[in-house]
Amino acid sequence: MKPRKSGRPVKPGVPIHPLLRISEANLGIHDRYSPEERSEIYDRALTTIFPAVKSEVVTPVLIRPQKTLTNTVCRVVIANRHVRLFFPEKRDDFREVVRRFRYGWEGCWERQFSESVDILDRAAEIANEILVSGFCIQVENDTVKDRVIARSFVPEAFKTIKRALSGVYKDYFIINWPKTEDYYAEAIKLTAAKYSDGSIYVPGEHFAEIEDFADINEFVLSEGAISLAAEAKLARESAIIISPKRKTRKAPKKNERSSNGIPAHLRDDLDD
Q1: Closest Cα partner for 87 from 103, 66, 67, 65?
Q2: Could you say which residues of the chain have pLDDT below 70?
Q3: Do 152 and 121 meet the contact criterion of CB atoms below 8 Å apart?
Q4: Do residues 77 and 88 lie in contact, with contact meaning Cβ atoms separated by under 8 Å?
Q5: Backbone phi and psi for residue 51, each to the nearest 5 degrees, phi listed first
Q6: Any idea of the CA torsion for 48, 49, 54, 56, to the nearest 10 degrees?
Q7: What pLDDT sits at residue 42?
């Protein structure tokens, strides 16, 4: 048997309990709990407090376009679902580039992304756009670097057509575009189009117009919009087709009229 650091022998099958270090200020609080309550506290702590991860040594990579507007370098950093752009020089042309991609100023240019978004793609796209605009970049992520050089990222869709899932316009197409562009005049011409809260809404049955509009103006249809178009198309193809005719109204017969020309079924019984 190998002795523990405390010098006591380790018995087979008996779990080893960790040595806890509790500050004097919290020792009194700790002693108020029962052993069962302490176990629950330890279990919760182990599932909510994660050990510090040692940062790997990262070698930043500088990438420059053939023609540069300035020697100032933009550092592209990914941290906690944020892409941050550190560019110390104040330039309107740089600001226009990053604002077009919806980055805001919070001590640096930054944007937060949800868990469902490939943040490496978003970092690679903004890095590529900065390069195209004539600025140098520095990246600290090998995947981002590779995607920038190979241009293998999937561009983010800013001009979108989605499906309304609730509200007055449920199952309508929703057309949205960036504030830097204007498609209102074209979108509002679509059949039965309505404007509300900065978006254009179009009924699902006009899917063919929506698809043409998207192709011509390079809008991206979401999965929901694609499903709505497919459903509307199926409903149209499976609709019952008839040849409707108006029913001819026949004039009443002579014996159904009174002497004054009023049809019998409309005449009040005046004789009663």
Answers
A1: 103
A2: 1-19, 24-25, 46-58, 252-272
A3: no
A4: no
A5: -65, 150
A6: 20
A7: 74
Q: What is the pLDDT of residues 143-156, one digit of tens each?
A: 999 999 999 999 88
CA 249, 251, 257, 260 torsion: positive or negative?
Answer: positive
DSSP designation for 193? -
C-alpha 53: how far from chain center: 30
131: nearest Cα among 153, 148, 147 = 148
| Token reading at 190 | 């679509």
Instruction: Give me the DSSP letters along 99-158.
Output: HHTT-EESSSEEEE--TTS-HHHHHHHHHHHHHHTT-EEEE--HHHHHHHHHT-SPPP--
- How big is the chain by its Cα radius of gyration, in Å? 35
Total residues belonging to the chain: 272
Strand partners, 75: 86, 138
Question: Cβ distance 85 to 74 under 8 Å?
Answer: yes
The two structure tokens encoding residue 153: 């990222």
How high is the pLDDT of residue 48? 58
Sheet of strand 199-203: strand arrangement: 194-196, 199-203, 172-176, 160-163, 220-221
pLDDT tens digit sequence for 156-177 = 888 999 999 999 999 999 999 9
Tokens 């991206």 correspond to what residue? 220
The 3-state DSSP class for residue 9 equals strand
- Side chain identity at residue 106, one-letter code: E
The sign of the torsion formed by the CA atoms of 221, 225, 231, 237 equals negative
Rounded Cα–Cα distance for residues 219 and 198 (Å): 16
Answer for the pair 70, 137: CB distance below 8 angstroms, yes or no. Answer: no
DSSP code string of 238-251: TS------PPPPPP
| CB 173 within 8 Å of CB 187 | no
Tokens of 95: 């600001």
